[in-house]
Amino acid sequence: MIKLVGLYRRPTDEAAFLEHDHAAHLPLMRRVPGLERLEVTRLTRAPLGGEPAFFLMAEMYFADLEAYRAAMRSPENAEAGRDLMQFAGERVTLVQGEVE
Asked: Which residues does UniProt call coiled coil (predicted)?
Protein backbone atom coordinates (compact mmCIF):
# COMPACT_ATOMS: atom_id res chain seq x y z
CA MET A 1 0.00 0.00 0.00
CA ILE A 2 1.23 3.52 -0.84
CA LYS A 3 0.40 6.52 1.31
CA LEU A 4 0.58 10.18 0.34
CA VAL A 5 0.80 12.43 3.39
CA GLY A 6 0.14 16.16 3.46
CA LEU A 7 1.52 17.97 6.51
CA TYR A 8 0.19 21.50 6.99
CA ARG A 9 1.82 24.25 9.03
CA ARG A 10 -0.53 26.36 11.15
CA PRO A 11 -2.40 28.97 9.09
CA THR A 12 -3.09 32.50 10.26
CA ASP A 13 -6.85 31.99 10.00
CA GLU A 14 -7.47 28.42 11.16
CA ALA A 15 -11.25 28.58 10.70
CA ALA A 16 -11.02 29.78 7.09
CA PHE A 17 -8.35 27.20 6.31
CA LEU A 18 -10.42 24.33 7.74
CA GLU A 19 -13.56 25.56 5.99
CA HIS A 20 -11.82 25.53 2.60
CA ASP A 21 -10.13 22.22 3.28
CA HIS A 22 -13.36 20.46 4.29
CA ALA A 23 -15.80 22.16 1.91
CA ALA A 24 -13.66 22.42 -1.23
CA HIS A 25 -10.36 20.54 -1.14
CA LEU A 26 -11.36 17.22 0.42
CA PRO A 27 -14.28 16.72 -2.00
CA LEU A 28 -11.81 17.22 -4.87
CA MET A 29 -9.40 14.67 -3.38
CA ARG A 30 -12.17 12.13 -2.87
CA ARG A 31 -12.74 12.16 -6.64
CA VAL A 32 -9.15 11.05 -7.40
CA PRO A 33 -9.32 7.58 -9.00
CA GLY A 34 -7.68 4.81 -7.01
CA LEU A 35 -7.90 6.62 -3.67
CA GLU A 36 -8.88 3.90 -1.20
CA ARG A 37 -8.95 5.85 2.03
CA LEU A 38 -8.52 9.46 3.14
CA GLU A 39 -7.92 10.44 6.76
CA VAL A 40 -7.49 13.94 8.15
CA THR A 41 -6.03 14.47 11.61
CA ARG A 42 -5.98 17.76 13.51
CA LEU A 43 -2.65 17.77 15.37
CA THR A 44 -3.33 19.21 18.80
CA ARG A 45 -0.35 18.42 20.97
CA ALA A 46 3.36 17.61 20.89
CA PRO A 47 3.89 14.88 23.52
CA LEU A 48 7.49 16.00 24.12
CA GLY A 49 6.34 19.56 24.80
CA GLY A 50 5.68 22.74 22.92
CA GLU A 51 3.49 23.30 19.90
CA PRO A 52 3.31 20.57 17.27
CA ALA A 53 5.40 21.31 14.18
CA PHE A 54 2.28 20.83 12.05
CA PHE A 55 -1.38 21.82 12.37
CA LEU A 56 -3.06 19.20 10.19
CA MET A 57 -2.17 15.89 8.56
CA ALA A 58 -3.97 14.33 5.59
CA GLU A 59 -3.24 10.69 4.73
CA MET A 60 -4.29 9.29 1.37
CA TYR A 61 -3.99 5.55 0.72
CA PHE A 62 -3.57 3.75 -2.61
CA ALA A 63 -3.45 -0.03 -3.23
CA ASP A 64 0.01 -0.06 -4.79
CA LEU A 65 2.57 2.03 -6.67
CA GLU A 66 0.80 1.52 -9.99
CA ALA A 67 -2.52 2.80 -8.58
CA TYR A 68 -0.72 5.74 -6.94
CA ARG A 69 1.06 6.71 -10.16
CA ALA A 70 -2.17 6.50 -12.17
CA ALA A 71 -3.93 8.65 -9.56
CA MET A 72 -1.18 11.29 -9.68
CA ARG A 73 -1.54 11.52 -13.49
CA SER A 74 -5.33 11.89 -13.37
CA PRO A 75 -7.19 15.10 -14.26
CA GLU A 76 -8.95 14.87 -10.88
CA ASN A 77 -5.61 14.97 -9.08
CA ALA A 78 -4.44 17.87 -11.24
CA GLU A 79 -7.54 19.82 -10.19
CA ALA A 80 -6.99 18.98 -6.52
CA GLY A 81 -3.33 19.95 -6.86
CA ARG A 82 -4.18 23.36 -8.30
CA ASP A 83 -6.58 23.95 -5.41
CA LEU A 84 -3.98 22.84 -2.88
CA MET A 85 -1.39 25.27 -4.23
CA GLN A 86 -3.89 28.15 -4.13
CA PHE A 87 -5.00 27.73 -0.53
CA ALA A 88 -2.04 25.98 1.12
CA GLY A 89 0.94 26.04 -1.24
CA GLU A 90 3.30 27.71 1.22
CA ARG A 91 1.98 25.74 4.19
CA VAL A 92 2.04 22.15 2.95
CA THR A 93 4.73 19.49 2.82
CA LEU A 94 3.90 16.35 0.81
CA VAL A 95 5.62 13.00 1.35
CA GLN A 96 5.00 9.56 -0.12
CA GLY A 97 5.66 6.29 1.67
CA GLU A 98 5.08 2.56 1.69
CA VAL A 99 2.83 1.19 4.41
CA GLU A 100 4.38 -1.90 6.02
From this structure: none
